[in-house]
């Protein structure tokens, strides 16, 4: 593959942009990490395909939608398994993860204090353990320590990022998910990821 | 590819299951169209991967998540373009469509009458034209009458299904989206799709 000029455009946060950065980091691929603030974003918004971030720019052309761009990068850099059925199982994990992010986003976007409290309780007590239980089972069933096949894929990176979020929000149960804990350790021990994380800017979300 | 024993499990509706049925129909691939009712679903729920429908069953093995399974079927049956970049552009359309479905689902799930009315107004006056404008532009820019490349893909089937929904709900603007109207006509004129639609059970959603 010819080397490409790659930019990831997103806010100054992990959010829905981090998974694309993680795939590029795992690949050891250089990219420009462009971050917008509340002040700089409005001027850039009309230059994005759908007025949203993240955006992937490859050799000057722009694409949007977090799942679409991270899946593309995973295919391009060898983190999408070997077979068509591997791809299905990876996408299954990603889409489950998206359902979790949607539940989390609902909480973060709620402005009514009472409703926000209810949503947080539901996120902590119901959603988090529901999704972690699904992930733990999928991981355990595959028996390799990875979600799909026997090597690192987009699915592992996606769930690593989700666990990082839960840790940071103090929402990760302290026990009960041994396979996920092992996966987390394995991802942060990956040399490329380790180098990336060592220089990553720490942000709240 | 060896012939497979394929089942699509979903409710007695189009909803998030129809896109997988449409891909199989376009491929001329036989499949078992299993439909659950409010009465029969609870007994089946524990036998599904995540307690959700749709589910794809291939040779006895079950997979879930609508986008994951329809994308798998599209790859398997040649409706996912030719290049990795085609795949990105197809996924971009699908993910935009998912954003629209999420907005529509919010309306359908709302039980408070006043809020439901507001959500419907927003869906009709804001969301629908926003997404149709994005789709119209993508389609027009590609210049082939299809969303990606020069033949039918998952993206065309997905947006056809979305337009069918809008028509049925009387939410489709009567003019202003000529490329989308052409695409709709092209999809329903496809021989395999035509044969499928001629025998499809009509449902509300």
TrEMBL record, chains A, B:
S-crystallins are structural components of squids and octopi eye lens. Contains relatively little if any GST activity. The keyword Transmembrane applies. One of its GO terms (biological process) is glutathione metabolic process. The chain crosses the membrane at residues 146-166. Residues 83-205 form the GST C-terminal domain. This is Glutathione S-transferase 7. It comes from the Eukaryota. It holds the Pfam family GST_N. The keyword Zinc-finger does not apply. Residues 4-81 form the GST N-terminal domain. SUPFAM superfamilies: GST C-terminal domain-like, Thioredoxin-like. InterPro entries: Glutathione-S-Trfase_C-like, Glutathione-S-Trfase_C_sf, Glutathione_S-Trfase, Glutathione_S-Trfase_N, GST_C, GST_superfamily, Thioredoxin-like_sf. GO terms for molecular function: glutathione transferase activity; structural constituent of eye lens.
